[in-house]
Amino acid sequence: MNSHTIMERAEIGRRKRRKTRAILVDAAMRVFAEKGLEAATNAEVFSEAGVSRGTFYNYFETKEDLLKAVASELVDQLNDQIDSYTEEISGTPERLAWTFGSFLNRTKADPVWARVILSIAAMNFPHPVGASTGANIARDMQAGRDQGLFTLEDDEVAINIMVGTVTQAMHSTLAGRTGPDHAYHVAKSILLALGTPEARATEAAKLARQADL
Length: 213
What we know:
Blueprint: H1 3-35, H2 42-49, H3 53-59, H4 63-86, H5 92-109, H6 111-123, H7 131-146, H8 155-174, H9 182-194, H10 198-205
Helix pairs in contact: 1-2, 1-4, 4-6, 5-6, 5-8, 5-9, 5-10, 6-8, 8-9, 9-10
C-alpha cells in the first residue's frame, strides 16, 4: 500500500468521523427540544441518531461532553446569523443592541435553545461565550472605540458586562419575570456601561425591541 492510498484512507476516515459526529449533534438537538435538557438521556440520543451505544461513546463520554458540542454548534450558528442580519447595520452600538435583543427575544420563542446556551455559559466552555463570540465582541469593542462611541478599554470587562447581563436577563425571561420592554432596557444599560453617550444608547437600544433570529 503506497503513501497516497494511506493518506486517502485517512482522509475518508476523518470525513466519516466528522459526519457521524454531526449526526449525533443534530440528533441531540432534536432530543433536547423534545425531552428537555435534564430529562434527555444519551440512550435517546444515539437511538435518534441511529447509531450504536459504542459508536456514541466513541465521540462523547458523558452527557456534559455532548451538551458542550451541541452548544458550540448553536453558538456558531448564532454568530453566523447575527453577522448576516447585522451586516447592513453600520453603527456598533446599534449592532450590539440588535444582538442583545435577538438573544432575549429568541429566549422567549425557544426556551430549550436558551437553556442550552445558559448551560454552556455556566460550564465555562472554554470561555462563557465561546471563542468565536469572544472574538466578535473584541472586534465590536474596537470598532466602537474607533467610532468614539465606547470608552471602556478592557475587553474582558466588556465581555463580563455583556455576558453577565444578557445571561441573567435570559434567566429572568425564562422565569417570566420580565416586562414587554425588557430587551430595550437591557440593551440600553449595557451600552451605557460600555461608555456610549446616553442619547445614542437610547436610540440604539430601540433596535432590541424587534430583533429576531
